[in-house]
Every structure is written in C-alpha cells, then in structure tokens.
Design goal:
globular; alpha/beta; Jelly Rolls; 468 residues; 5-stranded mixed beta barrel; Spore Coat Polysaccharide Biosynthesis Protein SpsA, Chain A
Length: 468
Amino acid sequence: MLVPVIMAGGSGTRLWPLSRSLYPKQFLPLVSNSTMLQETVLRLNGLETAPPVTICNEEHRFIVAEQLRDIDQLGPVILEPEGRNTAPAVALAAHIILEGNDSLLLVLAADHVIHDENAFVDAIKEAIPQANQGKLVTFGIVPQSAHTGYGYIERGEPNGNGFKVNKFVEKPNEETAQTYIDSEKYYWNSGMFLFKASRYLEELKALCPDIAASCISSLMGKTTDLDFVRINTNEFLKCPAESIDYAVMEKTKDAVVVPLNAGWSDVGSWSSLWDVDKKDDNGNVIRGDAIINDTKNCLVYGEERLIATLGLEDIVIVDTKDAVMVSHKNNVQDVTKIVAKLKAEKRSEFKLHREVYRPWGKYDSIDNGGRYQVKRITVNPGAKLSVQMHHHRAEHWIVVSGIAEVTNGEKTFLLAENESTYIPVGVIHALKNPGKTTLELIEVQSGSYLGEDDIVRFEDLYGRIGDK
C-alpha cells in the first residue's frame, strides 16, 4: 500500500500578503478552487493509496484537519512542536506507519503545482518497482530553463525506469546552471521521494544516528487526541534539523532519480504563480474583480475591491482585506524584506489576515476603534465556540442568518435572524450553531481591552483549554 506523507509546514512568506504565517500558501486556493494541500492529495486519485499522513505545526492543525475532511481524506496529523526540516519529520511518519504495515512512503510537499497529473501518476507508478526493491527514489524535474533558484540532481547509469544518482548540487549561478541544461544530465530537485518506511529508517540510522535516536525518543509516550498525534516536545527539540537530501539521499548508495515532466512548480514567488497560471491574450493573470487597460504581462490578484490598471507591464498587484502589495515582477523575491520589517515592528499583518479561521468557522474584523471592535462571525453547522468569559470586554451578538444557540450566564436560548443578546463583562457564555446551514452574526465588542488573549476557556470541543 502507498501512503502519502504530506509536508504541510512552512510560512510561505514570499507570497505575502496573501500567504501569512498563520495561514500560509499551502492552505490557499492559488490555482484552482481547491487549496494547494487539497490539490496535493486529490492528484493521487489515479493511485491506490491509504489516507495521507500529514505533518504540520500546532498552529495549523485545525486548518489541515478541516481541509482534508472536506475532501474525505483525513488521516493522522503529526504535530511538530517546532520545525526540524524534512528528515526528522518523515522519520516520525515512517515510525507511525510501521505500527501497521511496512508501506511505501510517497513524500510530497503540500505547496507544489503540477499541471499534468497523468504524467505525475505515471512517474510514481514507474518508481514503485524501484522502491519495492529497496531503492530510495527521488523525482527529478525535467528542467525548462537554467533556473538558479533550484538545486539539481546529476543522473548516472540507467537503473530500471530511472537512473542512479551521481550527486546532488546546490543552487548554481546562471552560467553553471546553463552548463547543466546543455549536458542534458541534470534535473531540478523536486523534494519528492518514494521509499519503504523500513528502508528509510534503516538508512537514517546508519547515516544520521543522532536524528534516528531523537525521533525514537520523541515518539515515546506520544499522545493522540481527535486526529492529531502529539510527540514529546523536549526530546524532539534535541533533534538536529536536516533535510532528507543532506541526511540520507546525498550519502546513501541506493539513491535513484526518476524523471518527471509534468508541469511542476513550487510556486515560490508571485512571478512563479504568474508563470503557471492561465493568462489572457496580453499575458495577464487576473484573479478577482479587475478592469485593465493597456496592461501587459501583469498579475492582478484581488479579494474584494475592484482593481483598475492603466499602462502597466510586468507588474504584480495583490490586494487583500488589510494590505496591498505592488511590485515589479523582477523584485517580487524581496517581499520577504517587507515581511521581516512587519515582524520586527510586531505588526499583525505578517502573521494574521483580517479574516481569521477557527475550528468552528471564521471571523472577520470589519471595524475597530479605541474601545470597540466589530466582527462578522461565521459558525459552521453543528459547530460550537468554547464556553468562555472575558475580563475586559462586553459583547453584543446580532444574528444575521441562521439559528444560534446561546448560553448567556445561567440561561440557554435560541436566537433567530434579526434577534440579539448582550453579554456583560465577566459573564460566562457560549455560542453554538444547532442548524444545518451556516450561522452568521455580527459581534460588537466594547471595553478597555479587546485582544484575543482576553479569553478564559472553561470547556472546548477542540481541546483548546489554555490555547487560542
């Protein structure tokens, strides 16, 4: 059985302001109506696979669970206390999978674009016999240009449907990259792998025994709640941070590369998204409401407002609810400098969107002032917010659509459309959607302090006591 292992960590800062640390690019619908995480799993429909094992951090756990549940593909979700790169993460997954059968692990990043899904599935099928024979397979992207942003793999002698790996090469300069392309012996390093769980752990133990030992210690006393697997934080933080490439693939004698020509991109920047997305007759990629005039080779991405352009070429415009980014395509890599400045200044825009997702739904902070804040709250059918209270703010809830089950102090009652309730400071309260349609309401907060950390939780369906 083939088990997808989905690496869903990372902050995707080069796609700011759309991608932010609490809602990065892998959870966004960048190239279709499905998110990149969902696309990663859905493109495996041509293969017989078990539910995926997904690896992410604590802050993203509910997003992962919700998005995979939406496509009926939710499997174990391993929570990393802190990122330690891919070698330890895959080792954790391999150990957990080995509790069942010694399966083939198909290691995939959650934020890649692949246009030709049939070619992708065919390449995996070609690699399966090699993996079953104990080889550690990586997929080499047939290069389309002398790209300096990727590592390269030099192929050696033919080996089954692939080639033995001669060596892995770091990101080259442009001149060196061109010599690789001219030789026709090099592939872009995709960071995708296929191997037996036991074989990977065997090589990791032989080549990086410190990582192997730390992962075993981290899994001792692991706990499971809902769909999440939690490991020993103290032990895992002792683990060296290494990629699979450095820890295993560059050292093993059993590395094999299978060529992949499937319209792959890691969507590492706004210009990369422009490269892979559909364009109009003037080379423009348009998402959202836009009127363009005398505009060529631009990317215009809007969430709500109308965007109008005049006389532009090779420009990227990204408009979200709380930030606008404008850049020449040649400078989009420098958006990380903006993110670094936002972080240094402790501005929320580096981390949060104005619209924030929660396990029960989402809220959108539509207005705020010195002593008030207005939110639009959406609660999924059957979902419930925690039983909580606030020390510094009162709240007024007005139902816009749906039915709300409200606990306000000692009373629990239903509110319908256009009905409301007032919750004073310090009163224990809760909100539930008992219906089969989405509940929407407006929340008006007032008080001396309106931060999200002024929440005291008493009960929570999602295990967030002491958590946000």
